[in-house]
Automatic annotation (TrEMBL):
The keyword Transmembrane helix applies. NCBIfam families: spore_ylbJ (TIGR02871). Residues 42-139, 220-316 form the Nucleoside transporter/FeoB GTPase Gate domain. This is Sporulation integral membrane protein YlbJ. It comes from Lederbergia wuyishanensis. The keyword Membrane applies. Keywords: Membrane, Transmembrane, Transmembrane helix. InterPro entries: Gate_dom, Spore_IM_YlbJ.
Amino acid sequence: MNFSKIKTILLASGVTIMACSMILFPEESFEASLRGLNMWWKIVFPSLFPFFVISELLIGFGVVKFMGVLLEPFMRPLFRVPGVGGFAWAMGMATGFPAGAKLSARLRQEKQLSKSEAERLVSFTNSSSPLFIFGAVSVGFFLNPRLGILLAIAHYLGNFLVGICMRFYGEKENVRYKQYRSPWRIISQALSALHQTRLKNKKPIGKLLGDAVVSSVQTLLMIGGFIILFSVLNKLLYQLNITLVLASLTEFVLSAFHLPKELGVPIIAGVFEITLGSQMASKVNEATLMQQAIITSFILGFSGFSVQAQVASILAETDIKFKPFFLARILHGFLAAVITFLLWKPFSEKFHIVSGNNAIPVMLQEHDLWWENTLKIFVLVGPLITILSLILYIYLFYKKVDSANM
């Protein structure tokens, strides 16, 4: 029996087991589905939708090309990607998964990136958003906003190191970029690129805005589907004790790093879905706060199969390979965990990151309150933004269909 037939049997068996499990555990499946839906329409959609729309407009109006010329002397020597990659990198850090993949794929479709450059770029432009790290993980799960500072530094520094490592991936392109000594010369070239890009785009502003809304909502609907699917899958694996079996396989690795075996279940849960994994890691009483932070950093870096499935779906529309992204996520997970371990002592002393310590320094009180209030605003206003955006999408979609049929 060849590998193709074995793969077919495994996939068919897996889907069948999942379907039977949903019948056996209907209540648990429904609760997990609601949990994924609440996260999507309260947090994910309202936080990503504006950035997705603005990104499409910035690409259409040539602003990304303008930034690309300015950032070329920085991005090309450091990461071996064009300057436009700097825009995807910044937006990926600001908005979180999977904005970096969407922008990398979009730039590849615009032929502003080669295949190898796009594969390098997508490997380090996907990261958790500050809102998720500070608001959901540090405030919501650990009840320790100061921990978010360390988690964020480890996460983004790890992502930067991944970009440095991935610069050696792929064949070396014979690309020569112009180096101008005069800053005014660089700005002049950037403005020229901005103007030429706008002239090439023949779409009216209204058409461009409508297409940006439709494209963004379609991507976010796909993201929502994956979030709900993997939320249910994770719950079913736990109900079938598969998570516990897989967690037992991690005991040797955990013991090698002097980590409690109770962290095995959060790791396996986080491998599938980062939110549940991070939440479970924060509740392991047998582990110290440092050990919980190390595991959480790994989970945030690896991103989980849920996010990776979202990225794979986006990359499937292009010729960008998924394998480099997957390997980069493994590397990111380990790098973030190591950085958290190395920085724990100085940061815990500087920012008073101690489990059970409720005394917050005055300089950090406004910082803590800001992230907590931001998360509350998204929970309250997020559903309204999602509903209004979906109504606008339906209107624009049917208007687009009608104009195509005329």
